[in-house]
Specification:
The complex is a heterodimer of chains A (384) and B (162). By secondary structure, chain A is mostly helical. Chain A is built from 22 helices and no strands. In chain A, α2 runs parallel beside α21 and α20 packs antiparallel against α21. Classes of the chains: A mainly alpha (384), B mainly alpha (162).
């Protein structure tokens, strides 16, 4: 056989050395092809491995149903606070701040953490989300100045988080809403606040300023994730887009409940929604009442969640039932997204969604425990 | 200069393929497992020992590749022998030996790395997942074992380990 191979090599006009070189080249080419093909999925997965493990570690420490039941069964808000002091995640913040503020700080810390560990490709939307605490602080500052709180009371309202905290804390000393707006002229919110300022001066209500900030936030959030080039980004876009749609829907429903028409609502709506595009939003804003909004949503993924809430709305007349239905839908949808890419963005969305729900539930429990004889069964119903 | 026959030269390529590709798969897999483990340890110090276990799992592919490469180098005469005695057929078989463990180790290492990284994430979320994580992470080891066995059989029956 050796002779046969040697004859073949000779017949091809190759020396032994040339044959060896061809063998080496063949191995190198096959190797390069294999490496290129096999490394592609690795390159997609690799950036998510460390962040996934980190968020899953924190996800594992979130409250389970048993712990939530124990919290619901506490006798008063002090017991809730003591219970939370036994949980490492909440112990530190509760040492420094009262319960509600501690929960806000914990939420802000969560978004900061996710923005810090998220892979570069998907970082932008989480960075935008982490700036929500700045927006909340500006809104608190505006509210405080509108109702005439003194500087110390104003500072109490601020969450000690976000890149603008020091600047906003110093603005607690200014006299009025207009001064707050003009003092923020070196921030990214200057343009939207100054645009809304004349409306505030006309109506003497801070709603236009608050809505301008919300619209700016949602618009920036949607734009930060609007190039879904791979599956991770598509999932992120669905997650962010659903939040924008839910915010738009809540605003429209509440506005319709207050009897506002299209012209009054449209300035506060982010037209470039996700599933609810501008024409659909226009239809909804032109609906005569809340139940027509729900029927107008037929064919969208929000219809079923809201339709189920109509009987309770008809009974109570409160749009809170729709808001809760939207929150529950948003939470369940995020949960479904979280299971789609276990070695990608899934665990990050899963953690954020569950942590957000946990903090909302803790706030509900704390609020209920401040009221005397608030039934535990009612609290359980209110939880997300 | 040491005289090397064509058979031994081909065996050298086989040895390179064996450890090269098996090491690549093992390195990628171990990198993935270690990246996940570092994330877990950053959040929970108690995960260090378990993180090390899962990060070490994809090491085996490189060990198989290394063993096969050493056997090829020794029995082809490249390490302390006569490097001219290996026949041309045995040299070509040696490339097959290297490819067998090299490519099997590459796939196995990568797969094991992904499974191990995912298991570390599952364990740091829920401690009870440890045993199940080990089982799932061990599954992709089988491909490397198949490759290793075939490499040994090729060496035995191909006249290299004669």
């Amino acid at each position: 056989m050796a002779d046969g191979i040697a004859t073949l090599i000779s017949a091809l006009g190759l020396t032994q050395e040339t044959f060896l070189v061809f063998c080496i080249l063949a191995v190198l080419i096959v190797g390069a092809v294999v490496v290129i093909i096999t490394s592609r999925p690795i390159l997609d997965i690799y950036p998510y491995l460390n962040p996934s493990a980190r968020v899953r570690a924190r996800k594992g420490r979130l409250f389970d149903e048993k712990q939530i039941s124990e919290l619901v069964e506490t006798n008063d808000v002090e017991e809730v606070e003591n219970y939370l002091k036994g949980i490492p995640e909440y112990a530190d913040v509760l040492d420094e701040y009262p319960l509600d503020k501690a929960l806000d700080v914990e939420r802000a810390n969560t978004y900061d953490f996710v923005a810090r560990v998220a892979p570069k490709d998907i970082k932008d939307p989480f960075v935008v989300m982490s700036k929500k605490s700045d927006i909340d602080n500006i809104k608190s500052l505006l509210t405080a100045k509108e109702v005439g709180l003194n500087p110390d009371e104003t500072r109490e309202l601020l969450i000690p988080c976000g890149s603008l905290y020091d600047e906003l804390e110093s603005l607690a000393d200014v006299d009025n809403v207009t001064d707050v707006v003009t003092s923020l002229d070196n921030t990214e919110y200057a343009a939207v606040l100054e645009d809304a300022l004349p409306q505030y001066e006309d109506t003497n209500m801070i709603l236009p300023l608050e809505s301008a900030l919300d619209k700016y936030y949602l618009g920036k959030l949607l734009r930060s994730s609007d190039v879904p080039s791979d599956e991770n980004k598509q999932i992120l876009y669905s997650y962010v887009g659903t939040q924008v749609d839910v915010a738009n829907l809540k605003l429209i429903i509440r506005a319709k409940q207050d009897g506002l028409d299209y012209d009054a609502i449209s300035p506060y709506i982010l037209e470039e929604g996700y599933q609810l595009r501008d024409w659909k939003l226009k239809d909804l804003m032109e609906s005569p009442d809340v139940t027509n909004i729900v029927s107008g949503l037929e064919g969208t993924k929000y219809a079923e969640a809201l339709t189920d809430a109509i009987p309770v709305y008809n009974e109570t007349g409160s749009v809170a039932v729709f808001e809760k239905a939207l929150d529950v839908y948003s939470s369940q949808y995020s949960k479904s997204l979280a299971s789609k890419k276990p070695l990608g963005i899934g665990p990050i969305i899963g953690y954020l969604n569950q942590k957000e729900s946990e903090i909302k539930n803790l706030k509900i429990i704390a609020r209920a425990k401040r009221e005397a004889d608030f039934p535990n069964s009612k609290i359980m119903e209110m939880l997300i | 200069m040491v005289e090397i026959g064509l058979g031994a030269a081909l065996a050298a390529i086989g040895a390179g393929v064996a450890i090269g590709f098996a090491g690549l798969g093992s390195g990628l897999g171990q990198g993935m497992a270690a990246a996940g483990s570092v994330g877990a340890v950053a959040e929970d110090n108690d995960m260090f020992a378990r993180g090390i276990i899962f990060s070490a799992l994809p090491e085996t592919q490189a060990i198989y590749g290394f063993l096969v490469a050493i056997l090829l180098l020794v029995f082809s005469g490249l390490l302390g022998g006569n490097a001219t005695k290996l026949t041309l057929e045995a040299g070509i078989i040696a490339i097959g030996v290297g490819a067998s463990i090299g490519f099997a180790g590459l796939g196995s290492g990568m797969g094991q790395g992904m499974a191990a990284a995912s298991s570390v994430g599952a364990i740091v979320e829920d401690n009870d997942m440890f045993a199940r994580g080990i089982i799932f992470s061990a599954l992709p080891e089988t491909q490397a074992i198949y490759g290793f066995l075939i490499a040994i059989l090729l060496m035995v029956f191909g006249g290299i380990l004669a």
